[in-house]
Amino acid sequence: MTERELALGRVSRPARVRLAWRILMHDKARTMLAIAGVFMAILLIFVELGFFFAVPQGGMLFYDNLEFDLLMSSDHYQYQAQPGQFPRGQLDRARAAPEVAQATALYFGSAKWRGGVDGKWPDVFVIGLDPRRPIFKVDSLNRELSLLERPDTALVDSATRPMFGPLTTGRVVKIGDRSETIGGRYVLGTGFMGLGVILVSDQNFARLFPYRSLDQVNLGPIQLKPGIDPDRAAAELRKGLGPDTRIFTRGELEAHEVAYWTTRTSVGLIFGSGLIISFVVGIMVVYQTLATQVSRQLPQFATLKAIGYRDRSLDGTVITISFLIVIVAFVPALAAALGLYSVIRDETLLPVAMTSPRLAAVFVATLVMASISALLSLGSLRRADPAELF
Questions:
Q1: Sheet holding 153-157: strands in order across?
Q2: Model confidence over 55-73: pLDDT tens digits?
Q3: For tag attachment on the chain, is the N or C end more exposed, with fewer CB atoms within 10 Å?
Q4: Which structural domain, as residue segments, surrounds residue 336?
Q5: Considering the entire predicted model, what is its pTM?
Q6: 266: Cβ–Cβ under 8 A, 6 or more apart, which residues?
């Protein structure tokens, strides 16, 4: 500290950092323990936040790969794998609307895959569609749809779990009561539709599920003609269709999926609560460390007060200590989070990724955590009264 700083009764920023660092290094074991606790809290925030946003994104995975402007569904639609059913005639009416270029019927079902590893019969999610109507954004998949015109042929999602056995082209596997030939594989991701997903033609779907009528549709992706406003087209279609169907724009569908997974399931409660708990734990760890450090260094702080240093300068030193702890813990927590995100993607196939907004949000939360901890611990610093200690 310079003579000028002593005269002014304040500590410059570089000197404050050096003082804070020396206080932390005075008891290295306690400091490392605090950094480890904050590291775990920040890592938990990364993981909880990753799951919180990845779950709704997993629900949108199939939709994100579909080419549509509007989506028709039953009024009982809950989420992707439980869309309900509506009459095909409603889709035909939508197809006849002047603003509609194409409307396609999708059929969803679940059947036993009688060819799993070790004799297991896992459930496979079956999507039936008209192979003559390309509806995917992936051109390579649209080209493969022609294979579904072959009798008893299916395309298998490459993300289907290993428990289903080899997904080699030409393999014949029994699905339900019928033998199906794997015509190829495609890359989309299974999302929340199940452990395994296959595409079949609508005619093949009817053979796999003889109790299902193709007159009852699960979803109807609608493509509009160029230049048509989706919101206006959705409003017009809703007027002409009965109350037994719903029309979603892409924005409305995404909002519905996010609301479903975060408010109507345990996802929001579990991961939202986890975020709050991790944040509070981080605050308490830093606070306990600061309070202990201030208590142990009270004579030194009292000495600084006695020679003329202002409370504001000493408060800044405590805040600096808090920031140093969380910043040192943040870097390894980020590295560990990147590794965990990779493991989560591989094991759950959820689209967990480190985005710039997420990184910024956690860093800001970390600084807020440090600020709150410092403010809580300043009360201990007020007890550094030179008249009492000397």
A1: 107-112, 123-129, 197-201, 153-157, 178-186, 172-175
A2: 777 778 889 889 999 999 9
A3: C
A4: 3-59+266-389
A5: 0.76
A6: none
